[in-house]
TrEMBL record:
This is O-acetyl-ADP-ribose deacetylase. It comes from endosymbiont of Escarpia spicata. The lineage of its organism: Bacteria, Pseudomonadati, Pseudomonadota, Gammaproteobacteria, sulfur-oxidizing symbionts. It comes from the Bacteria. Residues 1-167 form the Macro domain. InterPro entries: Macro_dom (IPR002589), Macro_dom-like (IPR043472).
Amino acid sequence: MGQIQIVQGDITRLEVDAVVNAANSTLLGGGGVDGAIHRAAGPDLLAACQLLGGCPAGEARITPGFRLPAKWVIHTVGPVWQGGEREESALLASCYRESFSVAKAHGIASIAFPAISTGVYGYPKQQAAEIALAAMREWVDDFEKITACCFSEADAYRYRELCRECI
Ligand code: AR6
């Protein structure tokens, strides 16, 4: 029986088997959490990503974590918020599902997610948190620990309000 943990902080510091990156479809780096992960992992991460040939929204790819404490990085591409009528919620749910599926296939026991799409991509934070937590609840028994890594205290508060059973 796994647990969902909510933490506030920088995902690049977490000692987990895998961290999820909120990437763009080129997988060649960017700002936000993507930039932070590439900086912390070092240049070998970009070289590994260059071999992947990109990734469509809603899918996930895996690379080593290189200099990160995490052994793996799972790169997923969230939807750009366009008002909610462009399959955004289905695509965001797919990001979580596909990331979990890739993680399970690699024997990963602990995995940490940022709040995918809620930065540059503009997804409304409350709706995104509901989708994230619903996916985490579906997969909780397939992992030892699932971590929701919130960058701000306000984001962590939002998650805690939505998840009374989370630790
Ligand atoms: N640790 C944890 N969460 C973080 C960190 C960090 N170090 N840094 C930012 N966040 P964003 P998106 C949070 O913009 O909306 C990139 O340029 C941030 O506060 O990183 O999916 C990619 O290359 C927010 O809650 O990702 C794409 O082009 C969350 O991470 C684009 O941004 C996601 O914000 C993807 O946009």
